[in-house]
Design brief:
The chain has helices at about 5-10, 25-35, 50-60, 70-80, 95-105, 115-125, 150-165, 185-200, 225-240, 255-260, and strands at about 20, 40-45, 65, 85-90, 110, 130, 140, 170-175, 180, 210, 250, 260-270, 280-285, 305, 315-320, 330-340, 345-350, 370-375. The chain is α/β, with parallel strands linked by helices. The protein folds into two domains: about 25-260, TIM Barrel (Alpha-Beta Barrel), CATH 3.20.20.10; about 265-375, Lyase, Ornithine Decarboxylase, Chain A, domain 1. The strands form three sheets. Strands 1, 12, 13, 14, 15, 16, 17 and 18 form an eight-stranded mixed beta sheet that branches. It has an eight-stranded parallel beta sheet with strand order 4-3-2-11-10-8-6-5. A hairpin with an 8-residue loop joins strand 12 (about 260-270) and strand 13. The protein binds pyridoxal-5'-phosphate.
Amino acid sequence: MTAKIRRYFAENQPATPCLVVDLEVVEQNFHDLQRALPLATIYYAMKANPAPEILELLVGLGSHFDAASIYEIRDVMKAGASADKISFGNTVKKQSDIAEARRLGVDLFAFDSEGELEKLAAAAPGARVFCRLVMTGEGADWPLGRKFGCELDMARDLMIRARDMGLVPYGVSFHVGSQQRDLGQWDVAVGKTAMLFTALDEVGIKLKMLNLGGGFPAHYRTEAPGTECHAGAIMDAVVKHFGNAIPSLLVEPGRSLVGDAGMIESEVILVSRKGYNDSERWVYLDIGKFGGLIETMDEAIQYRITTSRDGGATDRVIIAGPTCDEVDVLYKKAAYELPVDLRPGDRVQFHSTGAYTSTYCSVGFNGLPPLRTLCI
Ligand SMILES: *Cc1c(COP(=O)(O)O)cnc(C)c1O
């Protein structure tokens, strides 16, 4: 937690649950990534946190943007981004949305299938397209699995199809999986893309761009290599597989730009046990899976947690959300410990929660309002 965030909570005591984002940290993270990967253009994956203040800040810093939907494209343009700085990075798009993006001036689109290419050829003729390769997601705390991307041989054929359909086969992308902790995955992924560059070169298609996606970590309970380590692994892999013919590089960080910039404060509603001999206490908070902490699904993302009562003895707890739904339990297996004297009204902080929280909130489930976001 930054001093600025601590001061904000102390001075304003906002009603909980509340997410406070320190824009200075977002700016610092942007510069750090730029410094670590000077050859790469940053496309902020705005789905991680599309708060207007964050978008405006990044527009001012000269960032590009990876948009997942036409709504995100409209929002980021409203924040001041020009269309030539936007990539429509979702491989699953409605044709009408492709057409609107094209009308707005967007000229960079992702695909991973023939069906998507047909829509792009119809609604955005002449546009630059990049093909996403499927990855395993191995080593990632929040893998993206096989939902996106296609195999190498299919990507080759689709790129040829793209050219024949009047699109511009521009580059290749992948995503190694979010909160990636295995630096070796970059070599695997970049190696695959280099094979595709070579295979297409043989049929006269010269790709220009390599989109490295996201995957750079935030600072959660289990340590992960920092951005500089990832950048080093990326550049080692790029030089190894592309030699002197390095294509233009793109990165699409979401989590690593905004994750550590945010902190959620919540309040204890109840502490209880289920039986006289129950070894674990249940701690119920005013935020849960439906209030924005959905990445605790399968306890995949384990946030650092502190409380207003830290310092004394602790013991094992199960941490649960406030709604009347069985799945609204945050951590059980993860064996968190909280102060033994924790009681209703105490504050509980979830650190590094600036990414994938505010927008993951349900709409009024159990009548709960959406997670309030304040950018300072
Ligand atoms: C979500 C997403 C990202 C951001 O990934 P992080 O791991 O949060 O950095 C980047 N690119 C694409 C295409 C995405 O869908």
